[in-house]
Design brief:
0% strand; mainly alpha; 219 residues; Serine Threonine Protein Phosphatase 5, Tetratricopeptide repeat; 12 helices; elongated
Length: 219
């Protein structure tokens, strides 16, 4: 009887020890991933590389749902993005606001990073929570090279976005003349109207870009 109880106690102790070891490993992994996310946010390239080598999960997220690749793209940190892409980071993993790394690269106006993300399989049709696409970000930031790459990747130059806005309207409203010229050269229609009945020229004029509005109204 005593030996039976002893065996049961020993088995329970072994199970408890095993559970504690497993829990500690889980805690260590969480701590490792947390350090990795913080290092990525701070732009510490060497530290990030070491933590990935040490087992950090490349697609770990912060409280906003941002992965290190999201952070690098939004900040235009190409060296960090290169490292993460080499580590096979998910190029389509969006944050809580549904913003993808490609959108972030377009916002930060980094055409070379846009090219790399597209080559890695970034989707051009993804929309964020307010229904903006990567092309919307590119047109709004005035990155003509980014817009050009997205058009070459399959974005329709006259695509109707939320509220019937077009890329030309976005570029015109922010006064990005080079982007407007690129879009017109690629076949953008200046006469299209949004759901309020306004054209790209109207939006340029309302934003105090009179010369750009006049250019858009020329036949």
């Amino acid at each position: 009887m005593c030996s039976y109880r002893y065996a049961r106690c020993l088995a329970a102790l072994m199970l408890l020890c095993s559970s504690l070891v497993y829990a500690q490993k889980g805690a260590d992994q969480i701590n490792l991933n947390g350090q990795y996310v913080m290092a990525a946010r701070a732009g510490q390239l060497g530290r990030v590389a070491a933590l990935i080598e040490g087992g950090a999960q490349v697609d770990s997220r912060d409280r906003n749902g941002d992965t290190p690749l999201n952070m690098a793209a939004a900040k235009g940190n190409e060296a960090m993005a290169d490292l993460l892409l080499q580590a096979h980071a998910n190029v389509n993993l969006a944050n809580i606001a549904a913003v993808t790394p490609l959108m972030g690269a377009c916002f930060s106006a980094k055409p070379e990073l846009v090219r790399k993300l597209l080559a890695a399989g970034a989707r051009i049709d993804a929309l964020d929570r307010v229904k903006k696409s990567a092309a919307t970000y590119a047109a709004g930031s005035g990155c003509a090279d980014c817009v050009d790459q997205l058009l070459q990747a399959g974005v329709a130059v006259n695509a109707r976005l939320d509220n019937d806005l077009t890329l030309l309207m976005w570029a015109a409203a922010y006064g990005h003349e080079n982007t407007v010229k690129l879009l017109l050269a690629r076949g953008a229609e200046a006469g299209l109207k949004d759901n309020r009945g306004k054209t790209a020229a109207d939006m340029a004029r309302e934003s105090k870009h009179a010369e750009l509005a006049q250019m858009l109204e020329r036949p």
